[in-house]
Design goal:
The complex is a heterodimer of chains A (204) and B (257). Chain A has 204 residues and is mainly α. Chain A is 71% helix and 0% strand. The longest helix of chain A is centred in the last third of the chain and has 30 residues. The chains are: A mainly alpha (204), B mainly alpha (257).
Chain lengths: 204, 257
Amino acid sequence: MVKFPHRLKSSIKHETSGIAIPFIAFGAALNLSLGQLTALIKLPFYFDSIGTVLVAVLCGPWAAILAGSVANIVSSFMFSPTWVFFIPTVIAIGAFTGFWGRRGFFRRWYTAVPGGLVQGIIAAVISAPISAYLFSGITLGGTDFLVIYFRAVGKSILESTFLQGLASDPVDKMLTYLIAFLILKRLPYRLLIRFPRHENILTT
Amino acid sequence: MKTSSPLESGSLVDRVHPLTKLYFCLALVILSFFLDLRGEAVLALIALSLTLLSSKRWAIIKRFLRYVFPVAMVILLLNLLVYPESPEIRHVIGIKVNPAGFTFGLGVSIRLIIISLSLLLFFATTSAHQLSIALLMKGANPRAIYVFAHSLQMLDTLGRKIQRIYIAQSSRGLKTRGHPLKRVKAFFPILLPVIFSYLSESLERGLALEIRGLGIQGPRSFLTEIRESKLERVTNRILFTATVLIVAWRILRWLLL
């Protein structure tokens, strides 16, 4: 059995106990259900990582990694089996957002949103080789035409998927961070104080 | 207290222990990256045969045709027509095609078919409940398993709740059509009630879970048990050894040639 260092073990336990456990499950389900809401009001975005971002800020990076990974596994159960291969991307999203939240950057919109930009670039870097080597860059998503365009102008598969990710991910993640910030701002104090990482949002 | 095992109905493929199915599926996925075109074709045939033997064959084929087949075909076609890595071009009925691109696209498409078929087979023939029990009995973290099972359950209720709140807010005069800015504004009045209601629920549920001993250490008993047979245990070992040997052999061949 793997023996974790004590601090790491207690950090994981702190982030995944009490209110955090059902909230992590909610975060995972929210990632998958928001597509339904954006389809209802016809918005051209997926916002498929808002749940992970909320969990990362309120509970911490370990909880967010769990929420994101579970969302992708559940998605493989319910929809397309290929989702499971993008777990490394959601691990990066959870870890980075947890780090960004710990620095207190989700207290102000102008410090939260740039995090989305960095997050988008990280997501593009990690998704590109998965998308390139597993699916040759084609996932039947709305941005496939960009991959086809970059291939047609002579770029390699890896370059094309990376450029496509760079064109779409930063915008999506910046908006995700902004929405997460607006939601967190509206949460009542009595609820917020119950979360393991409430200090990420509340100022002393 | 022990009750009946949930693995008593369906075809032979359906009744195999969930972890044996998972190991088999992982073996197919890993090997698809290490074998050549002929090897990949054999793996694809194995995955297809097992799919046809399962009782969920039509559901798997339906999802395969909906999500995977179009992607595989686009990959093949795209690499056939656009493949900047190789300059060799041939003309087939007046269309410029790239033979190296075709071989590459075929390899990627077959790999995608193997991966998708084996994962679809696993997910279709294994219920989340069975998988949760099997993993818990192998010593998996109960918190992680709870998150997995609860989010699957919540997916349905959350979808219905979003729909209900959307209808309620629309009837109160919320504009959800028209200019994009109006639609963006409608996003929050629908999303926030959903989040608030689940936050309150999370508080109560979190407390209930701790009281019921989700976080306690030590051995646990199970209301429903799923045990591995001797044959399944041997199969798991053979799968593991064979996968490691094939991967090692392929890596050695790449290094030597």
